[in-house]
Design a protein that fits this description.
Helices cover 24% and strands 23% of the residues. By secondary structure, it is of the alpha+beta class. It has one domain (3-78). Strands 1-2-3-4 form a four-stranded antiparallel sheet. A hairpin with a 5-residue loop joins strand 2 and strand 3. The relative contact order is 0.14.
Length: 96
């Protein structure tokens, strides 16, 4: 399965997040975003000068967007309007 989502930063399309076969993730900056004079990287670990970022870089970035508290994550999973967490979608937490 190849599932692609658009990633926005400050109301601008920054690029796309893809789920590749086997569940791996990849983020690709859009060429227009990279060409901007005011480009802001999504993360220091994902510089815009590099077009494509692999799974081992993307997953820690995504996990850092979530709360660290397991009780909060559990409540979010039970909230009907919330989307499935990465853990529910098969993304395993990175050690450390």
């Amino acid at each position: 399965m190849n599932d692609v989502r658009t990633v926005l930063l400050n109301d601008r399309v920054a690029g796309s997040l893809s789920r590749l076969p086997g569940g791996r993730l990849r983020f690709d900056y859009g060429e227009g975003y990279r060409a901007s004079r005011t480009v802001t990287p999504l993360s220091l670990s994902m510089p815009a000068q590099i077009r494509s970022h692999p799974d081992h870089v993307v997953k820690p970035w995504l996990w850092n967007l979530l709360p660290d508290n397991d009780a909060v994550l559990s409540r979010r999973r039970r909230t009907p309007q919330s989307r499935p967490s990465p853990r529910q979608r098969g993304v395993s937490r990175q050690p450390g």
